[in-house]
Amino acid sequence: MQIKKIGRFGLEAPILSFGSAPIGNLFREVSDAEAHGAIEAAWEGGVRYFDTAPHYGLGLAERRLGEALSQYPRDEYLISTKVGRLLQPTDDYPGENDLADGFMVPKDFVRDYDYSGDAIKRSIEESLHRLNTDQIDIVFVHDPDDHYQEALDGAFPALSQLRDEGVIQSFGSGMNQAEMLTDFVRYTDLDVIMLAGRYTLIEQHSLDNLLPLAHEREVSIVAAGVFNSGLLSKDRPAADASYNYAQAPAELIDKVNEIADICEAHGVSLPAVAAQFPLGHETVSNICLGARNSEQVARNVQLFDVDIPVDLWKDLRDASIVRPESVAAFVD
Questions:
Q1: Strand 284-290 versus strand 16-19 pairing type
Q2: Range of the domain at 122
């Protein structure tokens, strides 16, 4: 698997990373055996970058990653986690689960949204404990949509200090929107961002501002949500396929079927093209795909074994489905 640098401070990893939200019991229970099997399959498939967050299963994903990765040399892989949501113990919800926030786990904690400098340092200490490690490579400020100024005044200065002290290697922000990330790239000294769902085969508005600015400031992008919550995850979209976790409009399904026609003409699958597409822009360093078991991991790895013909990218460009600059690294 191709290796690319991430950020400005010496980190690098194969282009596919493991997203751990599913092993935090996202929407359904996953056994410890399934979760550990997924991580081990990722390792065997060449994955060396694992992303997590306290939010995922109220710490469950971090704990499972820490347990499974302990068998491997720590200097052979990267871990990123996130800050902004402290986990506060509670006994106010006996017998309830956290499914309202997406995770099938007991509601033994509540999330305290806190982007102050002190909270960021405490969050990292707690993540280190759950991950059973003394090192976190990348820290993302997690979805500060409603906490813009607090993140600028508190979280980012704290992370910059921790990077200067060598506690972390790199820092940035992970969000489902490009506008605020663009501000963070412009006004802070971050060197990596996680962009979820906003740079895909069917959504390229980030080319108007975020990606050019990130390239100018040597900020790497980890692309997540590349299947747009399922619309691009199958060879053909179902009539009731979702987009951004809602029913996809008919015109968007028609557009995806047009993309699928081009993929079929070149003998490759739509998911493989969707998974690899963001790498056509030189600022994108990594694709983060989640998995809950070894079978899903194997499928994710296989998507990057597919050799996509240059002519397919040209056909998508010439049909005005993707913008020319989005596939420049593939066709130039």
A1: parallel
A2: 3-248+269-307
Contact between 64 and 42 under an 8 Å Cβ cutoff? The reply is no
Question: Model confidence over 75-97: pLDDT tens digits?
Answer: 999 999 999 999 999 999 999 99
Q: What pTM did the predictor assign?
A: 0.97
Could you tell me if residue 147 is inside a domain? yes
How far apart are the C-alpha atoms of 330 and 119, rounded to whole Å?
42
pLDDT in tens, 305-322: 999 999 999 999 999 999
How many Cα neighbours within 13 Å face the side chain of 54?
30
CA dist 171 and 173 (Å) reads 7
Residue pointed to by tokens 């499974």: 68
The β-bridge partners of 14 are 3
- The owner of tokens 């999330």 is 111
Would residue 318 count as lying in a domain?
no
Contact 99, 71 (CB under 8 A): no
Q: Is residue 60 part of a domain?
A: yes
Number of structural domains found in the chain: 1
Measured CA to CA, the distance from residue 35 to residue 64 in angstroms comes to: 7
Catalytic residue (choose from 56, 77, 115, 243)? 56
Domain membership of residue 114 (yes or no) is: yes
Rg of the Cα atoms in the chain? 19
**49 classed as catalytic:** no
Q: What is the CATH number of the domain that holds 281?
A: 3.20.20.100
From the list 208, 242, 204, the residue with the least C-alpha distance to 321 is 204
